[in-house]
Amino acid sequence: MSLDINNMKKSDFYYDLPEELIAQTPVEPRNFSRLMKVDRKTGKIEHSHFYNLCNYLKKGDLLVVNDSRVLPARIYGEKSDNKTFIEFLLLQQRENMKWEILCRPGKKAKVGTEFVFGGGKLRAIIREVLDDGNRIAEFFCDGSFFAVLDEIGQMPLPPYITEKLKDKERYQTVYSHEVGSAAAPTAGLHFTLDQMEDLRKMGVNIANVTLHVGLGTFRPVKEERVLDHKMHSEHYEIPPETAELINKTKAEGGRVVAVGTTSCRTLESVASKYGEIKACEGYTDIFIYPGYEFKVLDGLITNFHLPESTLIMLVSAFLGYDKTMNAYKTAVDEKYRFFSFGDSMIII
Predict the structure, then answer these.
(1) What is the chain's alpha carbon radius of gyration, rounded to the nearest angstrom?
(2) Taking the C-alpha atoms of 116, 117, 122 and 128 in order, what is their torsion angle to the nearest 10 degrees?
């Protein structure tokens, strides 16, 4: 169909998904998930498995992965004076031990209220209520805050995953390093360390960027007109060695392949801001939708995203609207597994 770029509606990006295709648990081993290969030029589709990713890459290609690590950011506790139950979800570190949080029930979290977690291993005092209802909480503990969080916290799985995660590490990529995300960069969940080593041996380079994924990644597009949607802001960093590898790859005619929409948004944000890829850090609220001209990407590895989400809009911008919607229809017909623990596609 013909898509009017200036008047795109979120309903243009709707597709019908049977509930049983929403993956509730990860595949074992990681790289045994299915892989759909889509030709960016023709839209031709091939069906494979992620362990065959090497068939679609070649010497001189560069994979750019997001090394952000998910915080076990959901903690349960009680008011220090009367044992009223509370749930905190840590969103973003503001300064030292102060964090922006979501909490339930919010009416119990007034400024000055103190809460305890993990039998007293962690305490928090509400310092501020923000306009959107989020809170600023200051935390107190003996020893390392992140060590305590790792002990008592739970992974903030998306709302469409209802089964309990048995192993916290299955919601982390094998190369995760920089702690700070409220959600996993899920395209990378399919990689194993052995597979990454095999790719390096065949001449495929791998470089890291960091983008700390916020919960805004799950926020639905509420406005019917796509261009009226306001994106959330997330912190990114590109280290010098990654910038150098990207520029070298481009100069030598290799392909830059982003692993995930977060890596994609990082690279395109920097190229849009500076006109080149260079070592830097900052915040981005880039919104990529059909009509966007890509400045860095030659390929994209990504999972299958929610209907009417900004992520399926990004994929449509890279692959083309009609080819994207056809790929999603094919994925449904072929019973691919969808969303965070689901199957993968490579567009190249």
Answers:
(1) 21
(2) -60
The pLDDT > 90 percentage for the chain reads 89
Asked whether the domain spanning 74-152 has the same topology as the one spanning 5-70+167-347, the reply is no
pLDDT tens-digit series, residues 175-195: 999 998 989 999 999 999 999
What's the mean pLDDT in 209-231?
88
pLDDT in tens, 268-322: 999 999 999 999 999 999 999 999 999 999 999 999 999 999 999 999 999 999 9
Q: Quote the pLDDT of residue 218.
A: 64
Domain ranges of the chain: 5-70+167-347, 74-152
Report the distance separating Cα 96 and Cα 127, nearest Å.
14
pLDDT at 132: 86
Residue 91 is predicted with a pLDDT of 87
The amino acid present at 83, given as its one-letter code, is K
Give the residue among 324, 303, 307, 73 at the shortest CA–CA distance from 186.
303
Domain 5-70+167-347 has CATH 3.30.2020.10: no
Laid out side by side, the sheet with 62-66 consists of 45-49, 34-38, 344-347, 299-303, 256-259, 62-66, 205-211, 234-238, 280-284
Query: Residue 110, SS3?
Result: coil
Q: Identify whether the C-beta of residue 151 lies closer than 8 Å to the C-beta of residue 125.
A: no
**Amino acid (1-letter code) at residue 269:** S
User: How much is the pLDDT for 69?
Assistant: 96
For residue 48, give Cα distances in angstroms to 38, 45, 96, 333, 344. 11, 10, 46, 15, 10
Fold of 74-152: Thrombin, subunit H (2.40.10)
Residues constituting the chain: 348
Query: Can you read off the two tokens belonging to residue 227?
Result: 């261009």
210 pLDDT more than 90: yes
Helices (H), 252-343: 261-274, 310-319, 321-333
- Long-range contacts, stretch 27-32, CB < 8 angstroms, 24+ apart: 27/337, 27/341, 29/192, 30/174, 30/189, 30/190, 30/191, 30/192, 31/190, 31/191, 31/192, 31/195
Give the DSSP H/E element, type plus range, for residue 150: helix 145-152
